[in-house]
Amino acid sequence: MHERVIWFFIFISCIAFNNAIAKNLSDGFVELEKFIPTIKLDIRYYTSDNFVGERIDGYESPKALLTILAAEALKNVQAELVASGLSLKVYDAYRPQRAVDHFVRWAKDLDDIKMKLKYYPEVDKMNLFTKGYIDDRSGHSRGSTVDVTIVSLSDPELVELDMGTNWDFFSPSSWPQSSIVTLQQRANRLLLYNVMSKHGFKPHNEEWWHFTLENEPYPDHYFDFPIQ
């Protein structure tokens, strides 16, 4: 009995220790919805509406977290857009490493293609690694990368501006400079590119929605605390 009590307290202590570590790791982060109250969220990895087709590991709440520096820069983007009757919508921000690990496990299961038609109709699942759509590391895990689009505040449904493809659509048509999309769609992408770049974010060459703070505070650290 005495031994079981000792092990019980060791177990409780380990939980408390791990929680303290997670809290310390996330101290340099903020919740975007609290930090930028006007921002819109659509955290797809908390839902089944993503290329995997289920909630992703580490997304225990539909929140968007960013490092304080990245959030401050994004706040400036949002202020400029709101002044023009527009708003950012965030699909993803900080992404725990365990979520990336989930992607890797999913990519190795070649039989699971239930979301292929919506997210990767042009790519064989076996080629997702070689084409760079899936990797074992993501800039999102460093805490200063966001996936965003723009919505119109004058629209009651907050419909997104037409960017030519959906978020996370694995295709050359998602490249910011793609000539496959229409002139209006390219103009909408350019609007997003310009306002994000103006406030310190650099774009991704193959994803119109993906931006990383140029001077990110943790360029070499991949965090894994869950989004709670």
Topology:
Layout: H1 2-25, E1 29-31, H2 32-35, E2 40-41, E3 65-67, H3 68-82, E4 86-92, H4 97-108, H5 116-119, E5 145-152, H6 183-198, E6 201-204, E7 207-213
Parallel strand pairs: 2-4
Antiparallel strand pairs: 1-3, 4-5, 5-7, 6-7
Description:
- This protein has 6 helices and 7 strands.
- It has a 5-stranded mixed β-sheet with strand order 2-4-5-7-6, with helices on one face.
- It is 33% helix and 15% strand.
- The chain has a single domain, classed as Muramoyl-pentapeptide Carboxypeptidase, domain 2.
Total tally of structural domains: 1
Please list the strands of the largest sheet in the order they lie side by side.
2-4-5-7-6
The rounded distance between the terminal residues' Cα atoms is 36 Å
Q: So what's the overall shape?
A: globular
Radius of gyration: 19 Å
Tally of extended strands? Answer: 7
Give the biggest beta sheet. 5 strands, mixed
Q: What fold name goes in the CATH topology slot?
A: Muramoyl-pentapeptide Carboxypeptidase, domain 2
The proportion of residues forming helix, as a percent range, comes to 25-40%
Poorly predicted runs are 8-25
Average pLDDT works out at: 91
* Second CATH tier, the architecture: 2-Layer Sandwich
Element order: H for helix, E for strand: HEHEEHEHHEHEE
